[in-house]
Design a protein that fits this description.
By secondary structure, this protein is of the alpha+beta class. The chain has helices at 2-14, 18-29, 34-41, 47-86, 105-119, 133-136, 147-151, 176-185, 224-239, 292-297, 314-322, 335-341; strands at residues 123-124, 130-131, 169-170, 189-198, 209-219, 246-253, 256-267, 274-275, 280-290, 306-313. Bound molecules: phenylalanine.
Length: 357
């Protein structure tokens, strides 16, 4: 028995991989292995002999088995060490300056306005870009026949053949997020909803995809005066000036009553856009008091709650603030343009540091 033990423990110690170990296991403690054969001989022994040999064989079997599993673990450790030695990556290597990315002006403007509205008590809400017809229109008091649907140059998604439910749309504005936020949070609410929107339109100041930020404040005592103050605070903080001239124009939206559009004073001399001076006005937002039907569609009681909403064009804000004359260039992915108008990747906009150092 000592010979058997020495033989197998020696083989196990010398095994180079798992296959070799398995072969040793079969030969030693497998069903037809050497230890099993010895066990069979127990039957021919006298009871006295058996009482000694039986436990000794079992002990030998146990010893071989534990040597096998110890060796198996050691082989796995060695394999892991080998992988760790060969598969490594120096995560401290600096990035290559030539390939440094930059923050797109739309992202920059979004970060800046999010920081400003956060200070004013607004959190960020989001909704899907592929929207139901109901959230994009009906819930916002724009029924099927309403001319606003045609005016918005909507992109409709195609339904499967024979499916005559209303098609989904690429959201034409961020206003459906008003409905989704009301459904989700109930009242009171203070949210902004930045994101991409879509309309079939293309010229120097229109692209088929552009960005808006919706604002929504719902509570028991919110008035048009609160709306005006919030917008003025926002515009001053965003353009980093003490005063900006805004023009509130009476307007109409199906989802607000009363409604106002807001323009900002600017000039367009030789294609150069300047803000705060000149005789031109650039429309930057639509706003108003949320229509009671819209509040009801969001599941909130319009007899108790009221509020304001606004929708601002983020790309237009960026054009005005950073002096970018053509909106189309925003989405051309021209690296020279991105390098010129892009922002440093690690400067997070905040109010105390100045937004866009
Ligand atoms: N959704 C409107 C648009 O895209 C803007 C708006 C939002 C107007 C909220 C009023 C209130 O033109």
């Amino acid at each position: 028995m000592d010979d058997l033990k020495a033989k197998y423990l020696g083989q196990i110690a010398g095994a180079g991989d798992e296959n070799a170990l398995e072969a040793i296991r079969v030969a030693a403690v497998g069903k037809k292995g050497e230890v099993a054969l010895k066990m069979r001989e127990l039957g021919k022994m006298t009871p006295e002999e058996r009482q000694v040999a039986g436990p000794a064989l079992n002990a030998l079997k146990d010893e071989i088995n534990s040597a096998l599993s110890a060796k198996k673990a050691a082989l796995a450790d060695a394999a892991l060490d080998e992988r760790l030695r060969t598969e490594w990556l120096d995560v401290t290597l600096p990035t290559r300056a030539r390939r440094q990315g930059s923050i797109h002006p739309v992202s920059q403007a979004t970060e800046e306005l999010t920081a400003i509205f956060a200070e004013l008590g607004f959190s960020v809400a989001e909704g899907p870009r592929i929207e139901t017809d109901w959230h994009n229109f009906d819930a916002l008091n724009i029924p099927g026949h309403h001319p606003a649907r045609a005016e918005m140059d909507t992109f409709y998604m195609r339904r499967a053949e024979g499916d005559d439910r209303p098609p989904h749309v690429l959201r034409t504005h961020t206003s459906p997020v008003q409905i989704r936020s009301m459904e989700l949070q109930g009242a009171p609410i203070r949210v902004i909803c930045p994101g991409g929107v879509y309309r079939a339109d293309y010229d120097q100041t229109h692209t088929p995809m552009f960005h808006q930020v919706e604002g929504l404040a719902i509570d028991k005592d919110i008035s048009m005066a609160n709306l005006k103050w919030v917008l003025e605070e926002f515009v001053k903080a965003f353009f980093e000036v003490d005063d900006v001239e805004l023009r509130f124009r009476a307007s109409h939206f199906p989802f607000t009553e009363p409604s106002a559009e807001v323009d900002i004073r600017c000039s367009w001399d030789n294609g150069q856009l300047k803000i705060g001076e000149g005789d031109d006005w650039m429309e930057i937002l639509g706003s108003g008091m949320v229509h009671p039907k819209v509040i009801a569609a969001g599941g909130i009681d319009p007899e108790v709650y009221q509020g304001f909403a606004f929708g601002i064009g983020i790309d237009r804000l960026a054009m005005l603030k950073y002096g970018i004359p053509d909106l189309r260039a925003f989405f051309d992915s021209d690296l020279r343009w991105l390098r010129h108008y892009g922002f440093a990747a690690l400067d997070m906009p905040n109010l105390h540091g100045g937004l866009s150092r």
